[in-house]
Amino acid sequence: MKKQAGLSFFGFIFIAMAVAMALITAFKVVPTYIEYFNIKQAVATVVNQNSGAAPAVIRNSYSKHVEISDIDSVSPQDLLVTQVGGTTTVRADYEKVVPLVGNVSLLFQFEVESSTGSSN
Q1: Which domain holds residue 21?
Q2: Whole-angstrom Cα distance, residue 43 to residue 37?
Q3: pLDDT in tens, 63-117
Q4: What is the pLDDT of residue 77?
Q5: Is 16 domain-assigned?
Q6: Residues whose CB falls within 8 Å of the CB of residue 18, separated by 6 or more in sequence, listed in order
Q7: Is residue 100 part of a domain?
Q8: Which of 24, 45, 51, 52 could lock 116 by a disulfide, CB 3.0 to 4.6 Å apart?
Q9: Which pLDDT band, with edges at 50, 70 and 90, does 38 fall under?
Q10: Is residue 74, in this structure, part of any structural domain at all?
Q11: What does the alpha-carbon distance between residue 19 and residue 79 come to, in Å, rounded to a whole number?
Q12: Confidence of residue 120 (pLDDT cuts 50, 70, 90)
């Protein structure tokens, strides 16, 4: 006589709950990373297009990217624009809190930096 093999009902429920929690976490975290990559692309584009321009011009150009890409985490005033010699550097450091369930949240710390003549 063969011994039964397989997944019991309670084992199935346990695995289903673990998969559901992983999916819920992923659905809440993925938009945060999509926004991060949008911010990174916007900063890189602004630096490449406005190399050597005044900080106000760079912030104005970034504000147009903010409207198009629906960026909420970093406003144009949050950008740190430095110009040394012929190099323009734009930097933004920000945190994003993603609520999961009840009083449980995830904290993400992002740093975005792009300079003229660099591959950042």
Answers
A1: 9-115
A2: 10
A3: 999 999 889 999 999 999 998 888 899 999 999 999 998 899 999 999 999 998 6
A4: 94
A5: yes
A6: none
A7: yes
A8: 51
A9: very high
A10: yes
A11: 39
A12: very low
Is 3 part of a structural domain of the chain?
Answer: no
Instruction: Report DSSP letters for 51-85, one per residue.
Output: TT--HHHHHHHHHHHHHHHT--S--GGG-EEEEET
The tokens for 106 are: 């995830």
Could you tell me where the DSSP H helices lie in the chain?
A: 9-49, 55-69
The set of residues, in sequence order, having a beta carbon less than 8 Å from that of 97 and lying 6+ positions away, is 105, 106, 107, 108
Q: What are the structure tokens assigned to 97, written together?
A: 């809190």
Report how many domains make up the chain: 1
CA distances to 75, 86, 109 from 112, rounded to whole Å, are 13, 20, 10
CA distance 75 to 59: 9
